Sequence to fold (546 residues):
Amino acid sequence: MEDDKDTILLTADLGWASFDQLREKYPDRVLNMGLSEQAMVGVSGGMAKMGKNVFVYSIIPFMLYRAFEQVRDDVCYPDLPVRLVGTGAGLSYGDAGSTHHPFEDLRIAAALPNMTVLSPSDPKEVEVLTEQTRNIKHPVYMRLGRNGEPVLHDKHNQIRIGKALKLTEGKEVLIVSTGVVTGTALEAARVLNAEVLEIHTFKPFDEEAVRKEAKGKSVIATVEDCTGALEERVAKALAGAGSEYKPLAFKFPDQFTHISAKSEYLLEHYGISANNIVEQVKKAMA
Amino acid sequence: MTNSQDLSKIARELRKELIVKHMQTKMAHIGSDFSCLNALVTLYMKVLDKDDRFVLSKGHAALALYAVLHRAGIMSDEVYGTLGQEGSMLGEHPLYGIKGIEFATGSLGHGLSLAAGMALAKKLNGEKGIVYTLLSDGECQEGSTLEAMNFIARQQLENLTCIIDANKWQAYDRTLLPADKLEKEFKGGGWEDIRQVDARKFDELQSALTDPKRRGPRLIISNSVLAMGVKEMEDQLQWHYKPPTKEQAEQFLASLDKEE
Fold:
């Protein structure tokens, strides 16, 4: 915000303790819209139309779902450079419950024309990707965890929007992951000597990299906190590519959560854990 | 000829033009076109200048906007001539990308937020000019309109004027939010500069739109009638949906001729 006076941050009554300093420094440019997600996204379209770089921030379902039509008609249709930044990807809101769990957001955001969809795995990736969005004069959706995620790797200087990121090498097993559950994928990969290919950009999807890395692998697993968005996208990339492999999908099932628990427990409960990945991959290879 | 006779003549000519266009294209919403036409004519002929912006929130009155943009010389004969043709840019609601039209509206409840964003950006940029938006009375029931109304008042966007075309009908019923109730809602939301005008009177519209003494964001409730301006059509809900037949069009054109 320091070097770009046209940068604006709109929030729907969220940001306590995280935006305080920023708001004190730039009171005209960090605005609390109140509990008004639809107006917030509409206002972002109006401001972007007049040349402002607008960041919009809320919890994912409130922003992307409640204000979906504003995202579609007021931002994506006019193809304006608004960055929609949502917090609480997947199950990261844990015991806040299903109202706060966006397990459909990758599909929903990717369904919109003109939209770039970013699903970073750690805080440093968020930084690098945010910086790179400066060059994107189109709508961007970025899904965040809930803060406190550890830095997962040291390959941040290789990150390019639109390109899959190879985190580890492996011969027989390929794990394709996206978002904050990439940590789980890496943990499993250490035991399995598997290759991890991280999809931090869900749209545009790097089909070429997936096809390239899939060659010669006997098991290809997808790891995500959505209901199969990544699984399907990988299958589409590999359809007709001639690879012979056993597919495995670690994902949230097509249902709402009826148990209250922290996200680690929930992920494990639904099979998105390093132990389960290791077990299932070994079974598939046997 | 006085100012308002002048505008009234233009509006009558455009009503005739629109009767023919709706008859030919079989497009709906002639009633909504006519209820807000006088406000649009006043805006484009007497009010808007190069620093101003306009957002038509009630996108279903697109044909009225096209006709006025064409008359004002903003839309070319060539583009206007494509209305009703397959492959034209000119939809029953405006598509995105038409010269002179800021946003693709048509889903109600979007215009006031978009106008608020534009006005706020202008204010932060220190730019001159006013952002005008025209809403239907019906779309004031949308939560998003109320969200924007509150936001605009909190931000005290003096450079925003919201016109509500209070034509007393919504798509299926008499409006659930009559003019006086609307006034109370906006007043309660913190708007102070509120005026009610008679949409048939061009001088009232013009002075409400141009009065330089502003007290924050301005609301103009334009009291109109559905299908205003053609006696045989006025205040009948069918004109929210039906285009006139050839016989009806001839009758309505003759009725407008008699007034001249």
